Amino acid sequence: MSRLSFKAFCIEKYADYKSMPSNEVFTLFEHNGILQILDNDYDVLHGHGFEYVIQNIDEIIGNGNL
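The chain above was modelled as a monomer; its predicted structure follows.
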């Protein structure tokens, strides 16, 4: 999976997880630096389960109840 595909996958899965439109998740990720983190840490993150990635994203955003 390419970095771009991984970021798109994370946006779509997080949107489903939070019942949010994917364009809002993109903006949220962009505003909180998540897109850069997903790019920088791609080698580590893409091998983990999505639950792990979601948990880390929620911790970075600072609110697991968006």
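The chain has a mean pLDDT of 90.
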